[in-house]
Fold this sequence. Notes:
This protein is an alpha+beta fold. Helices cover 44% and strands 24% of the residues. It has a four-stranded antiparallel beta sheet with strand order 3-1-2-9, with helices on one face. It is globular, with a radius of gyration of 18 Å.
Amino acid sequence: MSGHSKWATTKHKKAAIDAKRAKAFAKFIKAIEVAARMGGADIAGNPALDLAVSKAKKNSVPNDNIDRAIKRGAGLTGETIDYTEIMYEARGPQGTALYIECLTDNRNRAASDVRLAVTRNGGTMADQGSVAFLFERKGVAEVTKTDGLTEDDVLMAVLDAGAEEVIDEGDIFTVVSAATDLPEIRKALDEAELEYNNDDPVFRPTMQVDLDAEGAKKFLKLADAIEELDDVQNVYSNANVPAEVMAQLEAE
């Protein structure tokens, strides 16, 4: 899951921690393999690989896994790593839209798995372009909340780096920028010594759809099923679970 909307917070609390950890590791490993394939195994001479490795280490991916991924991606093990990025579009309950990002070495498998997960869990596949226009590509970094840190503090740290807004999302401050400004945002956060994560380009909805409790349950089931697929890297949505509905779900 992209982790950039309130419904994701609810979903994360309900998810099995070990399964989420394994899926997160796989996502970082794929990013390393792709970067190594594109630019070689030399971290010093491959900025994309350097960033991918840095993120993996930041998220506690073991060094042995990282080293193997670099070698596999660079073709040093004899294996061929050739991933294709594919976007799928789907509709969920109460008018919600899902934009599904896959990174796969088997297009047919990815298409079949996504379609099955969507249709078996109350969603419908959407025509190409009918969902995509509801999202825009943005850079996002999630800043960890610490005692005394305010929204204004974060905004002052990143404003000159190109930040468009800083959003208080409860446990974190979300910094939104143009996707191309992310390197400058990261640099500004590092200089301000602010801890951050999930600093990636994402697809953010231009408008959100509020869900009631029944709709939220159906949506979370659908989103869970899609995200569990091996080929799925991120699931973006315009779904929003209001605070009172979130509290109701967590109490059940």
